[in-house]
Write a structure and sequence with these properties.
single chain, alpha/beta, 5-stranded parallel beta sheet, 7 strands, globular
Length: 216
């Protein structure tokens, strides 16, 4: 099962033009199906079925693996990562309790690795974390509740990352120099729209509202 999943994950990874330099995962209900602070350190943990194959594939193609968790029991999380054989794969790990979304976790990851936020891809099962971290410039994908990270979610994340790259990377000659003393407002970055599964400068629901008011 693990080898088959790794092969499928490698096929997905090699089919995209751009790969993130670091993929960051939440722990609880993203990599494993429980809250580790509700467990004992001596227990034997389990991962979601396709997680290990995905992590092995990321390592094989040279993509870094990071962890960002608001767990109040980092010692248990650390023990479980070791027992599951994935601690050695992790190049950036920020596990500490926090009442705020994971912006501080990513600030620490940025300082520790030197990577830009737009070079990262993030998976989490909490909407508030996804919304907060995406505003930092990190491509952030909400994991389906109860399913954790799987091949389909990996493909969605890489698709979103590549679309973001397509929007954000432009040739130097594409933007002419503004006239002297003219105020230029920067073009807003595209946002991920959950309705049409694409990056847009204006979410679909706001487009519909705008058209409605224009016809009144």
């Amino acid at each position: 099962m693990e080898e088959h999943c790794k092969s499928e994950a490698l096929h997905i990874l090699t089919s995209f033009q751009h790969l993130p330099r670091l993929v960051v995962f939440d722990l609880d209900y993203t990599l494993w199906p429980f809250f580790c602070n509700m467990r004992c350190k001596c227990e034997v943990p389990i991962l979601y079925p396709q997680v290990k194959g995905i992590l092995c594939a990321l390592k094989e193609v040279g993509v870094g693996i990071g962890i960002a968790s608001r767990s109040p029991t980092p010692h248990i999380a650390d023990a479980y990562l070791w027992k599951l054989g994935i601690k050695s794969m992790v190049v950036a790990k920020e596990v500490f309790p926090s009442w705020s979304p994971k912006t501080e976790h990513f600030q620490r990851i940025h300082r520790g690795t030197g990577l830009l936020y737009n070079e990262m891809l993030f998976f989490d099962d909490e909407t508030r974390n996804i919304e907060a971290v995406s505003k930092m410039g990190v491509t952030s994908i909400l994991v389906t509740a109860g399913k954790g990270i799987d091949l389909k979610t990996l493909w969605q994340g890489l698709s979103a990352f590549n679309q973001y790259k397509r929007f954000s990377i432009k040739p130097q000659c594409a933007t002419p120099m503004p006239p002297r003393n003219q105020i230029v407002h920067p073009e807003p970055l595209p946002h991920w729209c959950c309705e049409c599964q694409n990056f847009l400068h204006m979410p679909c629901k706001f487009k519909r509202q705008l058209r409605h008011h224009q016809h009144i």
